[in-house]
Structure formats: C-alpha cells, structure tokens
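User: Working on a comparison across species. This one is NAD(P)-dependent dehydrogenase, short-chain alcohol dehydrogenase family from Pseudooceanicola nitratireducens. Can you predict its structure so I can line it up against the others?
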Amino acid sequence: MDGLLKDKVMLVTGAGGGIGRDIALAAARAGAAVVVNDLGASLKGDRENSGAADKVVAEIEAEGGRAIANGGSVSDPDAARQMVKDAVEAFGRLDAVVNNAGILRDGFFHKMTYEDFDAVVKVHLYGAFNTSRAAADQFREQNGGALIHMTSTSGLIGNLAQANYSAAKLGIAALSKSIALDLARWNVTSNCIAPFAWSRMTSSIKVDSPEQEARVKKLQEMKPAKIAPLAVYLASDRARDVTGQVFASRNNELFVMSQPRPVKSVHRAEGWTPETVADHAMPALRAGFMPLDVSGDVFSWDPI
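Assistant: Here's the predicted structure for NAD(P)-dependent dehydrogenase, short-chain alcohol dehydrogenase family from Pseudooceanicola nitratireducens:
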C-alpha cells in the first residue's frame, strides 16, 4: 500500500476497537506496518476479550496490509518495551507510536477511591510514559520518530466526575511538550490529539437529563474514523516540523488548542501583603479569570 506512511512502522495502543482500531486501519491503508496493541480489557480495565487485537490484524491483512498483534498492558513498563521490541523484530524499525489505550472509572471527587484514581492514571499517564520511553531509545538510534498522544478536553478544559481521567489527560499534554523539547535534537516529534468521537470511552456518559441526552446524540454523530487522518498525518514525514502542539478533532473540524500563558499581571513596587492582594491584585486580575466551565460549554455549537 502506498501513502503518507509507506515503509513506516506504527504502534497503536488500545487498537482493538474504537478510535485506536480506526487509526490502525488508516495507518495500514497509508502504507504502514502496524503493531496492534490491545489488552482486551473492559472499559474499567478488566480483561474480557483477549482476541481484540487479532481481529484488527485480520482486518488489516484482509486489505493487503501488514500487522501483528500485541496483548501487553501499557501500564507495565516491561510490556511497553516488548511492544517496541515486537515492532523492530517483525518489521525492522519503529517510526510512530499512538498512545490511545485508556480506561474510565468516573465518579464525583468526594466519592472517588484511591484505587480508581490510581488505575486510570496508571493506564493513561503512566501508559503514555511507558510506551514513549520505550520508543525513545529506538527513535534516537534511528534519528527520528513521531509520538501521538490522546489527550482530552476533560483535562484541557474540564468535566464533571472525571478527576482521575482529567488529571491524567492534562498530564499527558505536559508530558508531550516535555518530550518534544527533550527529543527535538533527534528529530522526534510529540503532539497531542483531543478526540471528539462516539466510542466505548464516551458510551459510559450518564444520560440523566434532557441536556445530557442532547449532548450524547451529538457525540453519536461523530465517528471514530474522523480522528484517524490527523493521527496519520502527524506520524508522516509531512509533519516533521509539527511538534509540541495540542490539536482537537471534532467531526469535520480540526483545532489547535491554546496552551497556558500569562494573560494579565499586576505589580506593586513595595511587594504584596494579604490585604493588598485582596484589595488590589484580585480586582485587577479578575478580568483574566477562567470560568468554571466544562468541555460542552466551550464546544457549544453543533458538530460541522
């Protein structure tokens, strides 16, 4: 297969279904050999379908592409190193990693357990670190590579009852930026995608009001396959000068997201006291405050 990823090798984690599956299929159609990683876990992280990766491999091979399956957990550093090893042993190199694997254990913060916080952070944030760190040595040896991480507007903006998921996803954005800075000298790029799509991850959204029902209907119109073109592009040589960015993909819309920067400042020559902070600084800075909004408040218009 010819395309933007001809002769390249891509590892896609959590590729047994949803967004990961569509990225793996699109990468293969663009010419890449693909390592399809999937633990075969439920939405909460329990093992339930160990053959998920094999099915996607079969789909790729049926279309004339090349792929192998890997069933390791991204939360395990040794398993992440094995994913990279599998790619190199099977195809001779590794050119791109898509950190897509994830689980959800939603709950309001005052009810969230340590175990549920830990499990989600381990898969999303530690998982992105583990696979990226394993790939970094190979990329440095090859003098090039691409890392594509799935973040979320739950972390970039905010959402209710997702403290664990939001913390991990915002952490991934910071991790990606640090990787972009540290590995630039070896021509390694690192970018994030915040995907809007109806998948297993979003299917857990509770529908307990007319507003939530309307939101879910909008999400159901956004297909996982819509995310794949951006991921394929970011893995290609056409994106060599694109790094350290956070993108969002929403149906037929693509966005580049802002990153935290100072928006307003105040100065007092003699320094500050708690009283002058209250009387001077806060009134002056208040115009720059961010509202207590959620992702749906910011992306309030219908998908295009």
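For your comparison, note: The chain is about 40% helix and 15% strand.

User: Helpful, thanks.
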